[in-house]
């Protein structure tokens, strides 16, 4: 059977085989109404027209079919373009992520490594300023700056930093350095006025002071500044500079040799006795630190031979200390008595200020307590100093400063001796109203007061002072003071008979002791423990 | 239809640049073995060690023997040569001295030809090396007065290179060092703070490695 044209079309459209071309055309045109943009349908219409001989209609439909095909191709192309555009966006995102993410990750890792390697190494422990009491250093520098400014504006003011705690000093060293730091600095200032005047009187340079407990001092001529002439200003300035070299020198023999050499060159004049005394004092102190008994005594004698009244007490301080160290008790006692005689001597025969003399009484008290365990003498000396300062009507800042220190020392002896309430209250009132105590010293004062109240069963008052201590610790960034609790702690064994109270008193001392390496929080914990014990009483 | 943009060149440029940067970073990390220390400020603090003084100028170093210097200065002071803040010869490595209330004794370094060049530190038998070797690290530290180069704006006169070299040498011998800059206006001086209110002599040493 031969197929007629459009047979497949008729099958597709479900028409009979004998359907005429006209009917097929009508059917196609009907379909075109519902799908006018179908180029295949239009093409079939054009073919039917051609078979029917409608050339014009066939051409028109052919053109229409081409047009529709073109449009459809264009739409398809646009769709493809959109698809590609979308695909490109997706590809770009993937590219960026896959390319730069590893790079960024690499950079982050490299950065981390860089930072880790470039981070400053921790400074070696032995060189870390914190280990050298950095904060104390900083506080001191700031204070020095302030005080320097104040001094420039008020030249009459006098300050002394000697009571700042030094982490390098043991309490014993601190006590022994009272002469070195506290007294000698004052001496240097005082003696410029006092001893220079004395030297101007033209005496022979031999020591004017002779202790009754010692044989007459015989000085070799080389130890006596005896040359005539006025003070050489350049020599004074030069030796003042030289002090800073000697001060850092640890080689005592070298200091000794230097002093000798300089002395030979200078041929010390009577008017320059103070400078020689100052240098000899360095040598004496240096040998004392080495505990070289013979050399300390030798230079104490040389110092004595300068005839400078400002150094008499220094001589006997070190003589007492070194002979005590050598366990020569008789000589130590004699030296201490000489210290007392020297204090009496400068009080009667020199122009030293009351504050200076009071400081010597205070040191006398310290010696009595430190080396001879003599509470009565210590208390008497401190009371002398206190009376002396109280008798002065015009209180200069330096007098107030010395007064504050002496009062606190005296308070310690009062607590150790468990003195009567009235005397204690009178002293405490003076201390509280002086306005000279730093936070550190207030802690010491309140510790002493708490212990006094504890041993006298005044627990309510003890609770208040203990609360003050705890509160102050909470406000203190660090605890700076300089207080040797050694003598007081030693005295507690005799002064407090009740074991439990003594134990708490020792705890109080420990929490207030600057030289015990303890944090503020640990001190507060100790304070709270004592408070808890008090609550249970 | 629009033409699509090619990313090939951009990809090449970016990947090459990043790669090169990473290589540089890695090389730097490998080669940078220098250490820095996070020093607290101030780095100056008190020490029980005694200073051994040096002046560093013109790439040269001189040790200040304080005993000899003060002895010589004493001679001059007793003869009146040091009066009225006059400069006087110290008979020590070309140094001149001056005494005044504010600065104690000052050392003016004008002629440094007698001083040791810092390159002498590389010579085993040099006097400079012997001097540094004599410092006892348990008792002493080295303190340098270092002239800077700002006097005339040129590098001439600076003592920093010599100082750094000496410091490295001392560090390798566990000897601590301190220093302070000086110049012709404010030269090396030794004074005592308790007597000279303006004295700024503060021995210090730097934390070593």
Key traits:
heterodimer, A: 537 residues, 21 helices, 0% strand, elongated, B: 209 residues, alpha+beta, 9 strands
Would you kindly provide a written description of the structure presented here, covering whatever features stand out?
The complex is a heterodimer of chains A (537) and B (209). Chain A is built from 21 helices and no strands. By secondary structure, chain A is an all-alpha fold. In chain A, helix 2 packs antiparallel against helix 3 (39-52). The radius of gyration of chain A is 51 Å and the shape is elongated. Mean pLDDT of chain A is 81; it is low at 125-135, 154-184 and 194-203. In chain B, helix 4 links the parallel strand 7 and strand 8 (177-182). Residues 205-209 of chain B have low confidence and may be disordered. In chain B, the strands form two sheets. A five-stranded mixed beta sheet of chain B has the order 6-2-1-7-8. In chain B, strands 3-4-5-9 form a four-stranded antiparallel beta sheet, with no helix packed on it. By secondary structure, chain B is an alpha+beta fold.
Strand content of chain B: 15-25%
Helical run tally of chain A: 21
Protein structure class of chain B:
alpha+beta
Distance between the termini of chain A: 132 Å
Oligomer: heterodimer
Largest sheet of chain A: none
Using the CA coordinates, give the radius of gyration of chain B.
Answer: 25 Å
Distance between the termini of chain B: 71 Å
The string of secondary-structure elements of chain B, in order, is HEEHEEEEHEHEE
Strand-helix topology:
The complex is a heterodimer of chains A (537) and B (209).
Chain A: H1 7-13, H2 21-34, H3 39-52, H4 55-118, H5 134-153, H6 171-199, H7 233-247, H8 252-266, H9 273-289, H10 293-305, H11 312-325, H12 329-349, H13 354-372, H14 375-390, H15 397-417, H16 421-434, H17 439-455, H18 459-475, H19 486-495, H20 499-512, H21 520-535
Helix pairs in contact in A: 2-3, 3-4, 6-9, 6-11, 6-13, 7-9, 8-9, 9-10, 9-11, 10-11, 11-12, 11-13, 12-13, 13-14, 13-15, 14-15, 15-16, 15-17, 15-19, 17-18, 17-20, 18-21, 20-21
Chain B: H1 8-31, E1 50-57, E2 60-64, H2 66-79, E3 88-89, E4 95-100, E5 104-109, E6 116-117, H3 127-133, E7 140-147, H4 160-172, E8 177-182, E9 188-190
Parallel strand pairs in B: 1-7, 7-8
Antiparallel strand pairs in B: 1-2, 2-6, 3-4, 4-5, 5-9
């Amino acid at each position: 059977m031969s197929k007629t044209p459009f047979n497949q079309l008729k099958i597709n459209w479900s028409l009979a085989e004998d359907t005429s071309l006209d009917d097929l055309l009508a059917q196609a045109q009907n379909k075109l109404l519902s799908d006018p943009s179908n180029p295949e349908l239009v093409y079939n219409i054009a073919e039917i027209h051609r078979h029917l001989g409608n050339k014009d209609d066939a051409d028109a439909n052919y053109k229409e079919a081409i047009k529709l095909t073109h449009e459809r191709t264009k739409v398809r192309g646009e769709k493809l373009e959109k698809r590609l555009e979308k695909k490109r966006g997706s590809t770009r995102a993937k590219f960026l992520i896959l390319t730069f993410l590893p790079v960024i990750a690499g950079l982050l890792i490299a950065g981390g490594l860089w930072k880790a390697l470039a981070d400053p190494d921790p400074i070696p422990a032995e060189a870390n300023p914190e280990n050298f009491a950095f904060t104390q250093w900083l506080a001191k520098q700031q204070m020095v700056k302030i005080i320097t400014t104040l001094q420039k504006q008020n030249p009459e003011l006098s300050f002394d930093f000697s009571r700042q705690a030094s982490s390098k000093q043991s309490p014993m060293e601190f006590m022994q350095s009272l002469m070195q730091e506290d007294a000698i600095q004052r001496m240097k200032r005082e003696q410029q006025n006092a001893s220079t005047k004395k030297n101007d009187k033209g005496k022979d340079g031999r020591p004017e002071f002779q202790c009754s407990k010692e044989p007459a001092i015989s000085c070799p001529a080389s130890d006596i500044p005896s040359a005539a002439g006025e003070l050489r200003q350049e020599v004074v300035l030069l030796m003042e500079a030289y002090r800073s070299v000697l001060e850092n020198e640890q080689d005592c023999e070298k200091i000794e040799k230097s002093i000798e050499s300089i002395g030979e060159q200078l041929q010390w004049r009577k008017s320059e006795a103070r400078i020689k005394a100052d240098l000899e004092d360095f040598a004496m102190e240096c040998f004392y630190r080495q505990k070289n008994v013979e050399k300390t005594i030798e230079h104490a004698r040389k110092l004595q031979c300068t005839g400078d009244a400002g150094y008499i007490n220094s001589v006997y301080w070190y003589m007492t200390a070194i002979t005590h160290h050598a366990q020569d008790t008789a000589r130590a006692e004699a030296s201490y008595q000489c210290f007392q005689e020297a204090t009496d001597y400068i009080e009667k025969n020199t122009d030293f200020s009351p504050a200076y003399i009071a400081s010597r009484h205070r040191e006398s008290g310290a010696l009595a307590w430190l080396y001879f365990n003599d509470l009565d003498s210590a208390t008497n000396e401190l009371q002398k100093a206190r009376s002396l300062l109280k008798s002065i009507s015009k209180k200069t800042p330096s007098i107030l400063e010395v007064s504050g220190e002496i009062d606190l020392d005296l308070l310690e002896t009062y607590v150790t001796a468990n003195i009567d309430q009235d005397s204690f209250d009178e002293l405490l009132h003076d201390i509280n109203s002086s306005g000279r105590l730093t936070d550190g010293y207030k802690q010491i004062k309140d510790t002493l007061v708490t212990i006094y109240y504890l041993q006298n069963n005044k627990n309510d008052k003890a609770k208040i002072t203990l609360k003050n201590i705890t509160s102050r610790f909470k406000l203190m960034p660090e605890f700076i003071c300089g207080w040797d609790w050694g003598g007081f702690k030693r005295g507690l064994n005799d002064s407090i008979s009740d074991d439990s109270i003594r134990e708490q008193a020792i705890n109080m001392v420990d929490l207030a002791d600057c030289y015990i390496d303890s944090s503020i929080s640990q001190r507060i914990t100790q304070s709270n423990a004592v408070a808890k014990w008090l609550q249970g009483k | 239809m629009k033409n699509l943009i090619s990313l090939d060149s951009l990809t090449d440029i970016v990947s090459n640049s990043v790669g090169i940067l990473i290589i540089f970073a890695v090389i730097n990390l490998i080669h940078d073995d220098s250490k820095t220390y996070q020093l607290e400020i101030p780095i100056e603090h008190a020490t029980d060690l005694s200073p051994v003084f040096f002046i560093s100028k013109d790439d040269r170093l001189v040790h200040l023997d304080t005993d000899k210097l003060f002895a010589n200065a004493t001679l001059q002071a007793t003869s009146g040569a040091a009066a009225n803040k006059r400069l006087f010869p110290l008979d020590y490595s070309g140094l001149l001295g001056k005494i005044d209330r504010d600065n104690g004794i000052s050392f003016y370094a004008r002629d440094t030809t007698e001083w040791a060049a810092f390159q002498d530190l590389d010579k085993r038998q040099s006097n400079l090396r012997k001097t540094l070797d004599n410092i006892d690290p348990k008792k002493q530290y080295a303190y340098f007065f270092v002239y800077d180069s700002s006097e005339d704006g040129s590098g001439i006169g600076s003592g920093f290179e010599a100082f750094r070299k000496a410091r490295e040498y001392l560090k390798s011998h566990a000897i601590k060092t301190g220093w302070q800059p000086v110049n012709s206006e404010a030269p090396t001086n030794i004074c005592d703070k308790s007597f000279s209110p303006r004295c700024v002599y503060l021995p210090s040493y730097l934390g070593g490695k």
